[in-house]
Amino acid sequence: MNQKMGIFGFGLLFGFALSRVGASEFDLIFNMFTGTNFKLAWVMLTAILVGYLGMRLLQSKGMITHSGQPVKISHKKLGRFSLLGAVIFGIGWGMAGACPGTVLAQLGEGKIYALFTFSGMIFGTYIYAKLKENTPEL
Amino acid sequence: MMTSLANYIFVEPWPFWAGGLVIGLLVPLLYNFYNTALGVSTGYGNLAKIIIPGSRSLNWIKSQFTETWSWRVYFIAGIILGGFISARLGGRPLIIPEMGQFTIIAGWPALLNAIYFFVGGMLLGLGARIAGGCTSGHSIHGIANLHMSSIIVTVLFLAGGAAAANIVRVLFMGGGF
Residue B127 is part of which domain span? Predict the structure, then answer.
């Protein structure tokens, strides 16, 4: 339970930051893609740099968690269909002006249409489960 | 002085670097405290399991989603509450009926908007699962760990997004926005 409440707190911080910096604004995401406003691209680049430096710091401490366990990095390998999936995701990102994290912040902000993006995402995940029944390498 | 600092944090929109700093820090922090990777989209599998509890199709996720109410659901709930608190402190209306300039300029009936965003969401959910992650898991967490697969996937995320947004802009928004 402690783990879940702690992660709930990190989620709260994540959602707060996404909303404050404007990552949950349809216009900012859309304008990054149409090339008229790159604020969110800078947010992503800064986040990657900070994440990288933080991981270096963790490495310098021996890649050990605060409770002394070895850190297990999740490395997402490319499957046969990964690149296709990435393009499908990108189209959804550009259409909806949201991604799986920012749509949650939009929901909290009271944006009505985020409800539809959100339910669509759950449905899309379910479609994946259905497709995977017949195509295990998906 | 304190009031203005609080104002910058809780009321004014953040500059890009403040958002990047907090979001980026989540990568090492989640590893340090919970030995887990930053990521959101996998949690939608948990949500699907909660909504359709008896579905045999969702058994594929058993290995990853052994526990239906896993920490991922709590992470998702936290993000929603974070957005809520941010909007309340920022003095936004409780309900926002528009989705940026899109719903204003396109001027579609509500049902059509709803279908449009549902389809967008469907592509996000399906695409994220096939690609193995989303903006947080691949683009932030993966690239911060210098994973080549995440760099390739992110380039295609952005290419798909740019293609879709420009087509939508020309077809439905008069090309002007």
Answer: 99-177
| Token pair in block for residue A73 | 């990095």
Residue tagged 């990288």 (tokens): A52
CA atoms of B90 and A112, how far apart (whole Å) = 18
ipTM: 0.97
- Closest by CA to A104, choosing from A85, A117, A123, A90, is A117
Question: Distance from B52 to chain A by nearest Cα, in Å?
Answer: 9
B24 min Cα distance to partner chain A (Å)? 4
Check if B58 contacts A (Cβ < 8 Å): yes
Q: What is the mean pLDDT of residues A42-66?
A: 97
CB atoms within 10 A of CB B148: 11
> Which stretches of B13-106 are DSSP H helices?
16-34, 43-51, 71-89, 100-106
Q: Is residue A37 less than 8 Å (CB to CB) from chain B?
A: no
Could you tell me if A137 lies within 8 Å of chain B, comparing CB atoms? no
* CB distance A116 to A97 below 8 Å: no
- For B100-146, how does the pLDDT look when each residue is reduced to its tens digit (9 = 90+)? 999 999 999 999 999 999 999 999 999 999 999 999 999 999 999 99
Number of domains chain B contains: 2
Q: How do residues A18-33 score in pLDDT, each as one tens digit?
A: 999 999 999 999 999 9
Of B174 and B14, the structure prediction assigns the larger pLDDT to B14
Boundary (domain end) residue, out of B68, B96, B124:
B96
Q: Write down the pTM of the prediction.
A: 0.96
Residue at a domain's end among B66, B96, B126: B96
Q: Where are the alpha helices (DSSP H) in A61-113?
A: 82-96, 102-109
Q: Is B125 helix (H, G, I), strand (E, B) or coil?
A: helix
Distance CA B73, CA B143 (A): 24
